[in-house]
């Protein structure tokens, strides 16, 4: 949530920061701003997307070798120019951008007001900046020292970056709980919330750790911990290419990412699964495989789309491994004092690897002695680093705010994890193991086939785009697929949509069914199929409009349905990876037909780093 970019070096800093903010806009787009040093500190900020800032800044002299920038997802204070970052200290010398939340800002603000501070915004960020300024003034100390003292009193999560008009050759940054990457160039440094603003300039990066402070000049990077001890920056090589974060000819990132899925699924399996040899290698969990197979129970914690992947994994793991699985919203799990301890395995599923709810959930479970397995997409992310073991999903950068390719990659990797545990435990027959390896290997091609439905799905989208509500139904492995279809639709088309287990319909939601209600039913051939056929009849008896996702060759459901989408046949364990494709396309096309910005849906942000 919120994107931060900063630059110091020989180039013009503002264009670098502006371009970086555009790349990070998926993290929030309520307002954007930059601070530069050009005849003193200059700050420019505007409500709305980065483009509004860009237009506003054209009338100013933006030359400067140093700049900090921010794109905001509002928490404290409405989206407006005044609440946009960077914020400025009372003496007008310091400017700061912040990602995260300062939880004790009310108390700090009162203390500062008592000391005579006046605030321009409603934000917690401005309070922190004034607090740092006050400490600097009272102690007559350098900014770095004032920051260190301030952070010892701050409760909350943050990445902050500061510039000081009196020290125009230095950026100062600190991190706790939110991500910060520093790109190391020749005589220049780039700071950002993720690597996407950095990759076109340098592949050498340092991931700043919690409680570290960075003092950065054009040709020097000093890292210190909160006790002022020097830390050695660990330089890593980025493994993403620029093309991966550009639209590549597609109208939207979301469409590009939907169409990348044959490749991303292939990438998530590559080097792990060899169906010909009948082998499955999971390097990231090798050391823990035996422990996992002996787990008392597995608890999957995640949010949103990743939680839906967790629900499917629950069915898969219980079926193959015969280990009890619970799936928890990370936010609920964290705060209800769960019974968890040694012998429990927590699987944290997260595309970004930075979701605050998931992160704090695993932190507390880890403290209580549980083993943490991270299934993340972003390499080097906080959740990945906090986990004892794990597997990356290798879907590449996901920029569209609505998750698509990360979801199918999560499903593929969770299937692999389940198979690995099952083979370690001996709870799956050799024949079934081999069959599932074959099925997984074919998934990428089947997804490519499902993507050919795009035109047909677009026509269906056109037919139903004006509906006020949608119901999504499925049973068994397809129930979470229905939840995911409904989430995608509401996120990007703002149509109210609910997902339900098809059998639950008769316990309430059937009251909604009439001739105006489109009901999307995921009814592929699996062990629940006959039951779903009955559910379709119940809807038709009440004149509901049925859009059925069925297996190729199905002859029973098509005559009953208003619209039918045929997807390739697959084992029920891997079928969700395929049956979700038309649901992603349906949501995409309805969102576009209604004229919405599907890559940046209102009120949302990609990486939810606040609790
Ligand atoms: C929905 C979506 C969100 C995320 C959720 C968790 O399209 O993207 O629901 O799935 O915010 O994010 P991660 O997976 O990054 O932990």
Automatic annotation (TrEMBL):
It is an enzyme of class 2 (transferase). Its main location: cytoplasm. One of its GO terms (biological process) is protein N-linked glycosylation. It catalyses: D-fructose 6-phosphate + L-glutamine = D-glucosamine 6-phosphate + L-glutamate. Keywords: Aminotransferase, Cytoplasm, Glutamine amidotransferase, Repeat, Transferase. It is found in: Cytoplasm. This is Glutamine--fructose-6-phosphate aminotransferase [isomerizing]. It comes from Chitinophaga solisilvae.
